């Protein structure tokens, strides 16, 4: 017995080599320990969207984690090369499906930059309102899901109630709940519905009430604070090195918000502040998102009060569809309509990079046009991608239970990461 | 308004039902004593206390939990399942059909056993999880001992001398079910759940036992009926929690009763937190942790899963029952108990007296169940090392200090008054600490990300603030 034991211990065993203590007496039991690899996802309650996390565990400590993406890959870039610039719009809905309007407007803004087009003021206001509404839905989902996955169901449902109300307003504005496909190159395709502003004000008031509820349930909750504070920490330098942007970067103490740094549309007219954290942990990311929601509500209210009257799309028939009476009544109208629908907007050859501040960070668009009416190349710099890439750096050596709030607060969205 | 009325009606209905079943329990026990052999009432108590009361409350709890969580979360709650009969077709019947459909679903689902599982242990898991918690209620007295049809009837199944030790011993057995279920299903997630359950058990079990020592010293007994106590009738000295610390003179007795939570607030909070961990419900649901590791029962389906689920609810009822008996005076009224017992009507009809006090006991139990539901749906989940920190670094030292302080106070003043004064001071400190924290929050809440970092980790000093706030604010 003793002989076989010693032999086992001496023999080459890839599972135990290096982890065994030096040869001891027979009485010392050599417990073989080996790492356990578990699959979190692609179908797992904590993986938003569909992502697979290959986690190597030592007990409950994460030794190695390997995020594997590709389960939601749809060929976004290639699809865009085969359609006109306007027809790309529905594809952009599916990037970050929680805040589709931001993708719509970001893409349109980049195309307009490539053309060198200034859109009407009212359209810029509507874009701000739409973006901030969808920033709210995105953050509500993120914060709610953080609560949910840590075992608190109530904050999630409060968040969902507010989100549903906002989705109703979005539906009234765009005609769709999630896949809005709103806006067109050169402006907006439909104006604010009548009486919509009042409804939005009411919705925002209710959202504020629900935010107070969520705040009360989470922010000072001993267990929530223990679970999120000092977990998922990333330093500001590392965050920048990984290419983080948005709330996750601001939680590290970097005051960088494109709405302030490079104001676009009419953002510089509004009075709002940028929430900045300090420690770069889950708790700060949560707080930053909560504060951003309050700021978004304030921006929407200001925009609704100061929105000017006027056209909502440029009056240029090479870019925007002519009004229907012109199409039906004049030959020029018919021709412009036909050319736009069949050939698309003739974007001049060139390339550009343009970025807007989406809910999870810098949503960048690198567009190349060869002047044929179709994109030559559409590349999206999705804010979720660098954030997901940093997960191994953040979480290795930490506990499995810490992975959940970390994965929640960075708010990786499968649709935009995998395009 | 309609909702308020419904809730009021439901409350009244529940109390009336409890009274009805209590009466039935006493009458049947009396009949059993009369017509069967002596001691037959204990057998009828098994049926009434453990099968009727505990099982039915646990079953209804599945619905109550959904309804209550819906109320807390601004939802309607279960109302979809309907009975397709004339007159019932368009009624949700308060969601009761959901219980039936749940049972049907669980009984008819495929009972799947993974190919690589250890079949014997896999089947043993749910039984081991269910049986111990079910057996726990045997030593909990659910009503006074009264004379029915000329025979003495105790509303308890067994009164061993080692009462509370039996509770602790059997309660810790339940973890075997969880650990075995996790291990035998040969699933990595389930294994993690089982290991987490064991680690959780280790961390709170010591605190669970220690938090009760002060109570044992105060009442000089381990027996639950002795801790609940007897009223001081006809000049006899009242015992246990039936005695008064301070009381007014006169026929109608009124005063401060010697209830456990007044004498031992730290012990109560420690016991409640530790036994809450025993139920494996949020915030202590790390073995399940459905968003992390799905749970130790991930491979179970059908009624085997149902056993795990119902055992959780049974544990909730049993925990409420034990806590009532140990800390909330059992079946005793807070005042007027001796006056009620000395009424001629009550002395003549023992079953009526038993029914009234039995209802008092079950109303307290239902209240404590409600407290547990509120906690369950308010707090997120702990991390398992945080539970160990809570158990070893907070509850255990607190319970140890509590043992010495209580022991000294009981020796110094056997009338327990000194202990009660210190206990009430402790409650006051807890309330003040909870309140001051709220005031801070109101100030700090207006700030953004910067402002909220004033929160320090030192608040742990007074035990479990979150629980203190949840329990003391009701």
From TrEMBL, chain A:
Location of the NADH-quinone oxidoreductase subunit D domain = 150-418
Q: Which Gene3D superfamilies match?
A: Cytochrome-c3 Hydrogenase, chain B (1.10.645.10)
State the residue spans of region: Disordered.
1-25
Cell membrane in keyword set: yes
> What residue ranges are annotated as transmembrane?
none
What is any one of the record's Gene Ontology cellular component terms? plasma membrane
InterPro entries the record matches:
NADH_Q_OxRdtase_suD, NDH1_su_D/H, NiFe-Hase_large
Report a single Gene Ontology molecular function: quinone binding
Superkingdom of this protein's organism: Bacteria
Q: Where is the composition biased (Basic and acidic residues)?
A: 1-15
* Sorted UniProt keywords: Cell inner membrane, Cell membrane, Membrane, NAD, Oxidoreductase, Quinone, Translocase, Transport, Ubiquinone
Stated membrane topology is: Peripheral membrane protein
The compartments listed are: Cell membrane
Report the top EC class in one word: translocase
Q: Which reaction does it catalyse?
A: a quinone + NADH + 5 H(+)(in) = a quinol + NAD(+) + 4 H(+)(out)
Any idea of its EC number? 7.1.1.-
Q: Taking the first listed entry, what is the main subcellular location of this protein, grouped into a coarse class? A: membrane
* Pfam families (alphabetical): Complex1_49kDa
PANTHER family documented for this protein: NADH DEHYDROGENASE [UBIQUINONE] IRON-SULFUR PROTEIN 2, MITOCHONDRIAL, NADH-UBIQUINONE OXIDOREDUCTASE 49 KDA SUBUNIT
Q: What does this protein do?
A: NDH-1 shuttles electrons from NADH, via FMN and iron-sulfur (Fe-S) centers, to quinones in the respiratory chain. The immediate electron acceptor for the enzyme in this species is believed to be ubiquinone. Couples the redox reaction to proton translocation (for every two electrons transferred, four hydrogen ions are translocated across the cytoplasmic membrane), and thus conserves the redox energy in a proton gradient.
**Subunit relationships:** NDH-1 is composed of 14 different subunits. Subunits NuoB, C, D, E, F, and G constitute the peripheral sector of the complex.
| Annotated family | Belongs to the complex I 49 kDa subunit family.
* Name of the protein described by the UniProt record: NADH-quinone oxidoreductase subunit D
The organism's taxonomy opens as: Bacteria, Pseudomonadati, Myxococcota, Myxococcia, Myxococcales
UniProtKB/TrEMBL annotation, chain B:
Q: Which InterPro entries match?
A: NADH_UbQ_OxRdtase_su1/FPO, NADH_UbQ_OxRdtase_su1_CS
UniProt superkingdom? Bacteria
Q: Which GO terms describe its biological process?
A: aerobic respiration
Subcellular localization, per the record? Cell membrane; Membrane
Membrane disposition: Multi-pass membrane protein
Chain residue ranges for the region called Disordered: 444-474
**Gene Ontology MF, one:** oxidoreductase activity, acting on NAD(P)H, quinone or similar compound as acceptor
Q: Which UniProt keywords apply?
A: Cell membrane, Membrane, NAD, Quinone, Translocase, Transmembrane, Transmembrane helix, Ubiquinone
Q: Name one GO cellular component term.
A: plasma membrane
Predominant location: membrane
* Catalytic activity, reaction form: a quinone + NADH + 5 H(+)(in) = a quinol + NAD(+) + 4 H(+)(out)
Give start-end positions of Basic and acidic residues composition bias.
453-462
Q: Where are the transmembrane segments?
A: 47-64, 120-143, 163-183, 204-224, 256-277, 313-331, 351-373, 394-412, 418-436
State the EC number(s). Answer: 7.1.1.-
- Biological function: NDH-1 shuttles electrons from NADH, via FMN and iron-sulfur (Fe-S) centers, to quinones in the respiratory chain. The immediate electron acceptor for the enzyme in this species is believed to be ubiquinone. Couples the redox reaction to proton translocation (for every two electrons transferred, four hydrogen ions are translocated across the cytoplasmic membrane), and thus conserves the redox energy in a proton gradient. This subunit may bind ubiquinone.
Record note on quaternary structure: NDH-1 is composed of 14 different subunits. Subunits NuoA, H, J, K, L, M, N constitute the membrane sector of the complex.
HAMAP family per UniProt: NDH1_NuoH (MF_01350)
Q: Which family does it belong to?
A: Belongs to the complex I subunit 1 family.
Annotated protein name in UniProt: NADH-quinone oxidoreductase subunit H
Tell me the organism.
Myxococcus llanfairpwllgwyngyllgogerychwyrndrobwllllantysiliogogogochensis
């Amino acid at each position: 017995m003793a002989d076989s034991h010693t032999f086992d211990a001496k023999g080459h065993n890839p599972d135990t080599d290096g982890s065994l203590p030096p040869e001891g007496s027979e009485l010392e039991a050599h417990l073989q320990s080996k790492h356990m690899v578990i699959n979190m996802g692609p179908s797992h309650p904590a993986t938003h969207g569909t992502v697979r996390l290959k986690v190597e565990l030592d007990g409950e400590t994460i030794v190695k984690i390997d995020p594997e993406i590709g389960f939601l890959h749809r060929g976004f870039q290639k699809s865009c090369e085969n359609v006109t610039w306007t027809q790309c719009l529905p594809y952009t809905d599916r990037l970050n499906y929680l805040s589709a309007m931001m993708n719509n407007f970001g893409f349109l803004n980049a195309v307009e930059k490539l053309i060198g087009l200034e859109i009407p003021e009212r359209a810029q206001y509507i874009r701000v309102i739409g973006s901030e509404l969808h920033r709210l839905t995105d953050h509500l989902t993120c914060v709610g899901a953080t609560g949910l996955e840590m075992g608190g169901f109530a904050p999630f449902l409060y968040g969902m109630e507010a989100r549903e109300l906002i989705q109703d307003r979005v539906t009234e504005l765009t005609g769709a709940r999630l896949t809005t496909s709103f806006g067109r190159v050169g402006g907006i395709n439909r104006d604010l519905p009548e009486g919509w502003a009042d409804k939005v004000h009411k919705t925002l008031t209710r959202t504020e009430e629900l935010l107070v509820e969520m705040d009360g349930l989470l922010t000072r909750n001993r267990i929530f604070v223990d679970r999120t504070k000092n977990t998922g920490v990333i330093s500001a330098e590392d965050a920048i090195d990984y290419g983080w942007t948005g709330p996750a970067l601001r939680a590290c103490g970097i005051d960088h918000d494109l709405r302030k740094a490079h104001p676009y549309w009419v953002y510089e007219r509004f009075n709002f502040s940028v929430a900045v954290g300090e420690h770069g942990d889950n708790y700060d990311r949560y707080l930053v998102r909560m504060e951003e929601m309050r700021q978004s509500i304030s921006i929407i209210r200001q925009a609704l009060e100061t929105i000017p009257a006027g056209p909502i799309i440029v009056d240029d028939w090479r870019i925007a569809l002519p009004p229907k009476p012109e199409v039906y009544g004049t030959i020029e109208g018919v021709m412009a309509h036909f050319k736009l629908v069949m050939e698309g907007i003739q974007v001049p050859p060139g390339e550009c990079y343009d970025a807007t501040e989406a809910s999870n960070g810098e949503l960048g668009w690198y567009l190349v046009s060869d002047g044929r009416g179709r994109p030559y190349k559409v590349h999206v710099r999705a804010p979720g991608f660098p954030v997901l890439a940093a997960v191994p750096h953040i979480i290795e050596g930490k506990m499995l239970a810490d992975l959940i709030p970390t994965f929640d607060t960075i708010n990786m969205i499968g649709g935009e990461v995998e395009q | 308004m309609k909702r308020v009325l419904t809730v009021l009606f439901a409350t009244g209905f529940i109390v009336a039902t409890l009274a009805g079943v209590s009466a039935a329990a006493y009458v049947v026990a009396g009949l059993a004593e009369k017509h069967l052999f002596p001691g037959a009432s204990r057998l009828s108590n098994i049926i009434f206390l453990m099968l009727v009361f505990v099982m039915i409350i646990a079953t209804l709890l599945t619905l109550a939990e959904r309804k209550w969580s819906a109320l807390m979360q601004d939802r309607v709650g279960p109302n979809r399942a309907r009975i397709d009969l004339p007159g019932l077709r368009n009624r949700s019947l308060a969601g009761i059909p959901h219980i039936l459909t749940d049972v049907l679903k669980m009984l008819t689902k495929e009972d799947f056993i993974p190919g690589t599982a250890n079949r014997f242990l896999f089947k043993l898991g749910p039984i081991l999880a269910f049986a111990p918690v079910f057996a726990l209620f045997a030593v909990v007295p659910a009503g006074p001992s009264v004379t029915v049809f000329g025979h003495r009837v105790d509303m308890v199944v067994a009164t061993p001398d080692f009462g509370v030790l039996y509770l602790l011993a059997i309660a810790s057995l339940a973890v075997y079910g969880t650990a075995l279920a996790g291990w035998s299903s040969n699933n990595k997630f389930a294994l993690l759940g089982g290991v987490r359950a064991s680690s959780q058990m280790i961390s709170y079990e010591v605190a669970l036992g220690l938090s009760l020592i002060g109570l044992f010293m105060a009442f000089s007994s381990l027996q639950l009926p002795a801790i609940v106590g007897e009223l001081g009738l006809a000049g006899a000295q009242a015992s246990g929690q039936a005695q008064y610390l301070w009381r007014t003179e006169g026929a109608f007795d009124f005063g401060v009763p010697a209830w456990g939570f007044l004498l031992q607030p730290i012990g109560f909070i420690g016991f409640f937190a530790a036994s809450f961990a025993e139920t494996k419900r949020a915030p202590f649901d790390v073995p399940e942790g459905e968003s992390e590791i799905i749970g130790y029962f991930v491979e179970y389906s059908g009624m085997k899963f149902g056993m795990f689920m119902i055992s959780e609810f049974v544990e909730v009822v049993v925990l409420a029952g034990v806590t009532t008996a140990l800390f909330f005076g059992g079946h005793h009224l807070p005042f007027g108990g001796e006056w009620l017992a000395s009424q001629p009507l009550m002395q003549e009809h023992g079953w009526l007296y038993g029914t009234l006090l039995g209802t008092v006991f079950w109303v307290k139990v239902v209240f404590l169940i409600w407290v547990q539901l509120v906690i369950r749906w308010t707090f997120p989940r702990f991390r398992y090392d945080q539970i160990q920190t809570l158990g070893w670094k907070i509850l255990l030292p607190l319970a140890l200090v509590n043992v010495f302080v209580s022991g000294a106070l009981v020796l110094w003043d056997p009338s327990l008054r000194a202990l009660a004064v210190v206990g009430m001071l402790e409650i006051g400190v807890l309330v003040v600490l909870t309140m001051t924290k709220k005031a801070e929050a109101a100030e700090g809440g207006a700030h953004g990300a910067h402002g909220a970092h004033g929160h320090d980790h030192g608040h742990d000093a007074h035990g479990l603030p979150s629980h203190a706030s949840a329990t003391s604010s009701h």
